[in-house]
Amino acid sequence: MSDNHNSAGGVPTTGHIWDDDLADFTNQPPKWWMLGLTASAIWVVVYWLMYPAIPLAINGTYFKGFGLPGSGQWTAIKELAEDQAVLDEVRKPYEDKLKDMTPAAILADTNLSEYVARSGKVLFSDNCAGCHGQNGVGTFQTGKFAEREKGYMAPILNDDDWLFGGEINTIHETIMGGRQGMMTPHKDMLSEKQIDDVTLYVKAMSEQGKDKADADASVAAGKQVFAESDCTACHGADAKGMPAMGSANLTDKIWRFDGSIEGIKQTITYGVNAGDNARVAVMPNFTEGGKLSAVEMKKLAVYVYKFGGGTPEAAPAAEAAPAAAN
Ligand code: HEC
Ligand code: HEC
Q1: Is residue 156 part of a domain?
Q2: Per DSSP, what are the bridge partners of residue 55?
Q3: Where does a domain end: 24, 41, 71?
Q4: 211 C-alpha to ligand 2 centroid (Å)
Q5: Best probe residue, ligand 2, of 131, 161, 183, 188 (max atoms within 8 Å of C-beta)
Q6: Residue where a domain stops, chosen among 71, 92, 124
Q7: At 119, which CATH number?
Q8: Which pLDDT value is given to residue 1?
Q9: CA of 315 to the centre of ligand 1 (A)
Q10: Residue 161 exposure: Cα atoms within 13 Å on the Cβ side
Q11: Could you tell me the distance, in angstroms and rounded to a whole number, from the CA of residue 99 to the centre of ligand 1?
Q12: Is 292 a domain residue?
């Protein structure tokens, strides 16, 4: 089978022959290739000595490299800091202005609000998107609460449906101070039957609108529970919600939590932020512990407003002039 010297031109083979005439020859690689190989091996060593590349066993330090001729030792951190300094220089005039402006004034300034929306995007991804979704589209509950919650982790921010209100100042307040959902549990207040009835009425309002639901005899019992229990105190007699409380509008098709009959029943029975089985709705406070700076929170307010669902201030004329202080 194998014959090491059975080859064309006298070049020995490795001894492996397939199909009787396919053989590996032991030719040397071309000279240019060998030179290239040697050159790159030398380059690796030179490169290695110039740049920080060799970890040392002592104290987690490393060999810092001899540096580039003329420009000294190079480190990625140093390069980053230099780039950052250039960037900061460009940003400084904007950042300085922002310090003294209200979010409403920033919004009114086309140039600045454009600038702010850009840096707001990074801030939002880092601090908010985990709960509100990238670009405020909302994220569904996952993990421990997924089965129980079956809804959004936090309200969608890129629509014009607001719990607390979409005015720029309100959004700013929400970010600075945080919010807590306060829908009370009704398991000890209403009977199971009353909860079932009011659930059907709420579902009917969402599907047909309040007027039709009110006229619908099949949900009359629930209508009565709604009117006579504490629901109207927080959701309003029109059931459209009260921004001061962040109570949901119950007459639209937008559901924060699970909008199925089962889901609505659970929200009414166990409430929000009220212990076992309650739904969880906590918007963190970003002022405490200096999580975000004052300027960062203003940027985010403008950024969120610009998702498209922002509500103009009631008295825009008063807000348009840049206020002296924030
Ligand atoms: C841990 C999750 C979480 C994070 C992180 C978070 N939020 Fe929220 N956010 C919520 C929840 C929950 C609510 C609703 C509170 C309620 O039900 O009363 C909310 C409400 C809001 C609202 C009010 C919405 C409305 O309809 O009125 C705004 C605005 C908002 N968040 C902006 C932000 C911004 C900006 C950030 C980042 C700086 C952020 N949130 C980070 C959970 C979060
Ligand atoms: C103490 C005030 C308060 C009372 C009383 C109250 N609610 Fe609520 N409710 C809220 C708030 C605030 C929310 C918004 C969710 C949250 O807590 O973050 C809410 C949310 C809901 C939701 C969920 C809406 C969604 O989009 O998922 C339903 C359903 C609901 N309430 C029905 C009722 C009914 C029915 C009653 C009366 C039996 C009632 N609520 C009484 C404050 C209240």
Answers
A1: yes
A2: 62
A3: 71
A4: 20
A5: 183
A6: 71
A7: 1.10.760.10
A8: 44
A9: 25
A10: 17
A11: 24
A12: no
